[in-house]
Amino acid sequence: MGLYSGHINKLIDELAALPGIGGKSAQRLAFHLINMPKDKVKRLTDAILDARENVRYCKECCTLTDSDICPVCANKNRNHRMIMVVENTRDLAAYEKTGRYEGVYHVLHGAISPMLGIGPGDIRLKELLQRLQGDVEEVIIATNSSLEGETTAMYISKMIKPAGIRVTRIASGVPVGGDLEYIDEVTLLRALEGRVEL
Ligand code: ZN
C-alpha cells in the first residue's frame, strides 16, 4: 500500500494484527489515533504497557490479575472445594458478574483444538490437576459449547473422574459456539443451576 506514509502503514499493520480488527477498522483506528491529542495517546500507550508489565497469572486459578493471588482465590468466604473451569478470564468475569457463584475458578487460557494444533499441554490443565490433589468436592466444566469447548470438557472429565471427584458440565442452552461473555446473566445462572453429572 503506497497510499500512506510509512509510519501510518506501520500503525495500520500493527492494529490489523489484533484479533477482531479487519483492515478497514485498522485504518479508521490509525487515523483516529493520529488525530488524537498527544497526551491522550500517551495515556493509552502507558495503559497498554502498564497492563502488559503488571498483570500476571494467579498462582491458584491462573486468571489474569494484579497480585500473586487473585481476589476470588484470596476470599476465604468462597467455597474453595468447588472449582469452575472456564476458558478465559472474560468467562470468569461473566460468571462473577452474576454475583451468585460461591465457588472458585480455574482458567485454562484456551481450549483443546486438534484443528489448530492446540493440545492438552498448551492450556492450563497441569495446574488444574495439581489443584485436585487438594480438598476438592466438585469440578464444574464451563467451557464454551463450541467443538473445542466440548472436546476440552470430555478430556477433563476423563482425566478427573478416576480421582473420584464429582464432575459436572453446565447445561446446554448456552448457544452453540457462543462465547460465555456475551450471554446474559440469567442464562448463565440457568446453565449453572441445570448442570449435569458427567
Ligand atoms: Zn485466582
Task: Please describe what this structure looks like.
The protein has 198 residues and is an alpha/beta fold. The protein folds into 2 domains: 6-54, Orthogonal Bundle (Helicase, Ruva Protein, domain 3), CATH 1.10.8; 64-197, Dna Topoisomerase Vi A Subunit, Chain: A, domain 2 (3-Layer(aba) Sandwich). It has 8 helices and 7 strands. The protein has a 5-stranded mixed beta sheet. A two-stranded antiparallel ribbon has the order 1-2. 26% of the residues are buried. The model has no long low-confidence stretch (mean pLDDT 91). The structure holds zinc ion. Zinc ion is lined by residues 58, 60-61, 63, 69-70, 72-73.
What's the structural blueprint in terms of helices and strands?
Layout: H1 6-16, H2 23-35, H3 38-54, E1 56-57, E2 64-65, H4 71-74, E3 79-86, H5 89-98, E4 103-107, H6 125-131, E5 138-141, H7 147-160, E6 166-169, H8 185-193, E7 196-197
Parallel strand pairs: 3-4, 3-5, 5-6
Antiparallel strand pairs: 1-2, 6-7
Helix pairs in contact: 1-2, 5-8
The structure holds zinc ion.
Zinc ion binds at residues 58, 60-61, 63, 69-70, 72-73.
